[in-house]
Amino acid sequence: MKIKNIFFGLYSQLRSIILIFLNLFAKRETRLYPESALNLSSRYRGRIILTRDLKGNERCVACNLCSAVCPTDCIEVKKSEKKNGRWYAKSFKINFSRCIFCGLCEEACPTAAIQLIPDIELSDFSKKYLIYKKKDLLISGPGKYHDYDFYSVSGVNINDNLKNNSSEKILNTVDTTSLLP
Ligand code: SF4
Ligand code: SF4
């Protein structure tokens, strides 16, 4: 029994030495982040942004669906209304110290306003800096969904277009077959 243990111990030591020696010549997997950039998938769910439509208007209509669906209750939206009846978020906050980057808010959003992007650089030294306000979240462009314009198919703009008898044109902008599997 003891001799068997001695042989097993020697084998184990030799195997470890050989593996270490072989790894000296293997390709290094360690990344020297942040000097060396990480290659994240374009579908990676990281930092959350609020986007604008093609006309530069804020896409968010303060419907609160993202806040309602969020499993960690980390989104707070306060609604306000413009003179033309269009709703917008007067205040929009996300607590990134509670967010689990599940993407449900993006799934629920009817206007494609809220989007998760492949940005992982969110760490900070204090939790209070992880509460992002609207000015930190809102970007100047449309994000991932370049062509989507909620107000061309719904909302206050459609009333104006219906008055101008261009409803047929509006309906043609939606390809319902694209929603099929
Ligand atoms: S990604 Fe998930 S946890 Fe984070 S804000 Fe959206 S719904 Fe909430
Ligand atoms: S981000 Fe989308 S789901 Fe959330 S309040 Fe704005 S429009 Fe509604």
From TrEMBL:
Its cofactor is [4Fe-4S] cluster. The keyword Iron applies. Its EC number is 7.1.1.-. GO terms for cellular component: plasma membrane. The keyword Membrane applies. Residues 51-80, 90-119 form the 4Fe-4S ferredoxin-type domain. This is NADH-quinone oxidoreductase subunit I. It comes from Buchnera aphidicola. The lineage of its organism: Bacteria, Pseudomonadati, Pseudomonadota, Gammaproteobacteria, Enterobacterales.
